[in-house]
Design brief:
- The two termini are 21 Å apart.
- This protein has a single domain, classed as Rossmann fold (3-Layer(aba) Sandwich).
- Helix 1 crosses helix 6.
- Helices cover 44% and strands 15% of the residues.
- GO terms for molecular function: hydrolase activity.
- Its EC number is 3.5.1.-.
Length: 227
Amino acid sequence: MAHPDDVDFGSAGTVAGWTERGVEVVYLMVTDGDAGGFDDGITRAEMAELRRDEQRAAAKCVGVTDVRFLGYPDGRVEATLELRRDIARVVRQVRPDRVITSSPERNYERIYPSHPDHRAVGAATLDAVYPDARNPYAFPELLAEEGLEAWTAREVWTSGGPTVNHHVDVTEMLPRKLAALRAHASQTGHMGEQLEEMVRGWLGGNAVAAGLPEGRLAESFQVIDTA
């Protein structure tokens, strides 16, 4: 994901369900979120450190302990070859079956997930999964200098985009999702009880679209077969 808190807004309930069933999950944040927050009294370097700590705390709320950061500048991410290589490196290190990222497509019905950094990271991640990570001749230095063998991830799940083909019922995981979001105090602390109201509204709308019973909550994705 592009920023600390992106995975928690889009996918924390789904992740909590996976880790509860014993699935190992690794987080990779492309930026440190140094352009976020509302406090002019701290430096951008201090904000980056704070947001890294918040993401680690949020990850623990949903059973994730391996959190990695690439340190790209917040607000200036582009889907460059360098970023593709850095994501492909982690794919080869972790060797995942499934990758979650943000959608590279702009969502005109709900614009907030379509931050330029989100779209750039989504595009770079899809390219890193196919073809970069699986092609031993793409970024050959990853194999020659770091010993990282090619790896094929079976599928990519994107969130926040205009196309949805899969929903995950996360009703029972709502407390853990909210705990993860509240761990990002620099971003959500000012929202108070409105945070839960907002999240319930999003997830409830997703559940209705999925045809789930009244009162259920869901996170939505586009699942892409990359095997």
